[in-house]
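Known limitations

Structure tokens in this collection are predictions and should be treated as such. Users comparing against experimental data should check residue numbering before alignment. To illustrate the layout, the record for Ribosome-associated protein is reproduced below. The input appears on top and the generated tokens appear beneath it.
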Amino acid sequence: MARRPRPYSEQDFEDVQDGRASKSEQKRHVQRMAALAEQLAALPKKQIQKLPVDERLIDAFLELESISSFEARRRQFQRIGKLLRTEDETMLLSFLVPKQGAKKQAQLLRWVDRVIEQGDPAINEFCKLYQAADRHTLRQHVLRYQRDTQKQIDEEELAKLRQNIVNYVQQVALISE
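Generated tokens:
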């Protein structure tokens, strides 16, 4: 086995620190998107047609009604999940959040604030309450937010990072129902 010509440096780990997702995290994201697809498929036909998404995605949702085979539905949900990857998560969640109700939404926003302020203890408690939550993913989102807060990054970037945490918490809550 060849030796590494130089020792590891900070530059070798920049991609990981900059938020590039690991392969496992990417797979979990795909699973969350498939679960999101199942939630969106439960919407009435009129609401599905109002979704501001690609026409192929709307057609894929409408095709689900005619599919009766379990395996074919599973493949269709995977296809929909793949198409959802290019869509805006925040916008899609906005269609599902009213289904949860204002009280549940306020509770989730309190969880987001608590997780950001308290860190690991709150993350562990959230993961116990919501079984679909992945501790590592949530922790990475929170650590990125806290790191950028300490670096005093602009407010727009911090708002974007906080929205990522909100989206993740909402997805987990929807999947856990």
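For this record: The two ends are 50 Å apart (CA to CA). The CA atoms of residues 50 and 145 lie 33 Å apart. Please report discrepancies through the issue tracker.
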